[in-house]
Amino acid sequence: MSPRVLVTGAAGFIASHVAEALVARGDEVVALDNFDPFYARAVKERNLETLRRGKGFRFVEADIVRDPLPLDGVSVVVHLAARPGVRPSLEDPASYSETNVTGTVRVFEAARRAGIRRVVFGSSSSVYGDTTPAPFSEEAPAAAPISPYAASKRAGELMAHAFAHLYGMQIACLRFFTVYGPRQRPDLAIHRFTDLIARGQPVRMHGDGSSERDYTYITDCVDGVLAAMAWTERARSGGIAEPINIGGGARVRLDRLIELIARTLGREVRIERHGDQPGDVRLTDADLRRAGRELGFRPKVGIEEGIRLFVRWYEGVHGRQS
Question: From the CA atom positions of the chain, what is the Rg in Å?
């Protein structure tokens, strides 16, 4: 019997890639998404096209906050459904609490009631805030998030710890560091910059360009999720909720990123400079020692190769702009 996996948020960027990898290796995937209007439903439907054509895949349109979860026969939950985005969370913090905290608790509780002890939870590097020394270690307290989105993800991690302690669940809390690649959300920086530069439009750059991010290519992120699923199966007896960084292994300055995208597109870039954005951190930098030790995780795709692959995908979808 192939394992049956519930993937929440399955029409989204990361989760749709995870679902494809699971189906490709022979797992049975039950995919759940509510098509939240944060970005266009048509984009998310395209994310599912390959999956809908194959076997071993069943899609359920449902909401993690309001609807029962399809857990019959499921052995592990990959919980990637979330209200995304740091900046939008400043405008509507209550909705982030509802989806990312209440929704996550409902997923944990439904799994517990169904007798499912294994969960992989998609958290975020944003939990480290602006005061954690680099490189960011999971041993750091992560006690000072600076946006409602970051706080909601940290709250989800704390709930994971409570469920692990009380009910013997094995939960991997994966702190993703700026994941990018084909099908990346259109509002995220690499996708947005690529689109603007390709169309000859100016790029808004907040700050002086010296802020740095640890960018993770989507195939590396998927490798981390699959490895975390295996980790939940072999984790020690008793409950555990372990935060684990999933990063790209290098810091990239914002101004270098923009220039790299422009060079890969073969375009000139016009930059409009603006002040720093509230809620944005100056730096992210993943300490990957725990990921290497616990998951055998090593990122394989560097930023130059990753941008080349992303631009190739972008031009394949949108055409090369004249």
Answer: 19
